[in-house]
Amino acid sequence: MNYGDILEIKAQLRSRFSPGDFVLNRSFGRMFKKVIDHAPPKRHSHLPVAIGICRNGREFELAVRIQEIYPNMNQFISVIQSITHGECDIRFSGKVVSHSLPWHKRNNRPLLMGSSVGHLQSNAGTLGCFVKRKSGSAMFVLSNNHVLANGNTGRRGDVIVQRGPSDGGEPATDRIGSLQAHKKIRRKNNNVDGAIAKLDADLVADVSRLRDLGALKPMRTRQLVLHETVFKIGRTSGITKGRVSALEMDELEVGYDFGSASFDDQIEIEPHPDQMGPFSVPGDSGSLVVDAEMRPIGLLFAGNSVDLSYCNPIDIVLSQFKIDIVS
User: Fold this and answer.
1) pLDDT tens, 75-96?
2) What percent of the chain has pLDDT over 90?
3) pLDDT at position 29
4) Other beta carbons within 10 Å of 259
5) d(C-alpha 257, C-alpha 242), whole Å
6) What's the CA gap between 105 and 125, in Å, rounded?
7) Residue 276 burial (10 A CB sphere; 0-12, 13-18, 19+)
8) Which of 148, 192, 289, 303 has the most crowded Cβ, counting Cβ within 10 A?
9) pLDDT band at 207 (very low <50, low <70, confident <90, very high)
10) What is the rounded average pLDDT of the residues 164-176?
């Protein structure tokens, strides 16, 4: 279709489907009457359909973006296809939002699981969850060694900030506590990439809720099995859905800034068929991975940013630090 015809159709559609504004020929008039009949309901004087112009090779097409599902949508699409003689690009765009900084990269008070966190000399990873030692009342955050301890180089007492340094975290405004302990990563025979930081006494944390997912449940008693559905909230990719693709992975080589390290007894996770894109990407390290019942199963620490992610079994992590998850 030529540009002028598409422009005229677009103008007619923009007239809020008012029949009095149509000046096209009779066949077009009848088609637009159908559009009126099948148009989505008006809400606040705005229809949840955006229209524009796109190209297909040398020809122009009508671009239609449906932003909300509504009654008679299929009929509405059929009529648009008839009007344009099939020369249209119709897609369901869903809700479109501004690209403001997502909550998991912001300074969050009270502290939230899934938030950006890090050692002052690191970039940023994810605050996995809140923990306490077997004896004592002090509260700690759990994440990875390479997030909270800067890959083996951190020392007890080092400042931890939320949001992480690469998200603008500064000690004066974003300090949440200090590094307490980390499990050293060695060249071989690792099973945990973990660290804990002691929270400053004046901080408040939402210890029981994974935002937009639900309430965190106690530890599971049954064994994890293949193809179980899992979720996580990460500093970079937010909420993602996956499924367990392998268990007890040994000799897994993981690259770090200081070299590679081999891990044993790891959990492998692939994107769920419902999930668009990878389960995790850089910056999601430290995320708490939970099952479909919101029970913790692992601490995310590595992945290939395409189709496979890896986490330490959460029971091994807790045992290493002699801690329990607070929920």
Assistant:
1) 778 888 888 999 999 998 887 8
2) 68
3) 47
4) 9
5) 27
6) 10
7) exposed
8) 148
9) very high
10) 96
Distance, in Å, from the CA atom of 176 to the CA atom of 157, rounded to the nearest integer, reads 12
Tokens for 105, please give them: 């990269």
Residue 29 to residue 106: CA distance in whole angstroms: 52
Q: What dihedral do alpha carbons 126, 129, 135, 136 form, nearest 10°?
A: 80
3-state secondary structure of 48: coil
Instruction: Report d(CA 63, CA 83) in Å as an integer.
Output: 13
Q: For helices 73-83 and 26-38, what crossing angle results, to 10°? A: 160
Residue 34 dihedral angles phi and psi, to the nearest 5°: -65, -40
Q: CA 270 to CA 307: how far, in whole Å?
A: 6
Q: Which domains occur in the chain, in start order?
A: 3-92 (no CATH), 103-206 (2.40.10.10), 210-315 (2.40.10.10)
**Does pLDDT of 30 surpass 80?**
no
Predicted local confidence at residue 300, as pLDDT = 98
Amino acid identity of residue 35, one-letter, is V
Cis peptide before 218 (omega within 30 of 0): no
Strands (E), 57-187: 59-66, 88-92, 111-112, 116-119, 125-126, 129-133, 140-143, 159-161, 175-182
Q: Measured between alpha carbons, how far is 322 from 120 in angstroms, rounded to an integer? A: 25
Angle, helices 3-14/26-38, rounded to nearest 10 degrees: 40
Chain Cα centroid distance, residue 109 = 20
Kindly report which listed range (2-16, 135-149, 191-205, 233-247) carries the lowest average pLDDT score: 2-16
pLDDT at 34 over 90: no
* Assigned token pair, 190: 């690792």
Question: What tokens does 268 get?
Answer: 């492998």
N-term to C-term CA, the chain: 60
Rounded CA-CA distance 158/180 in Å is 8
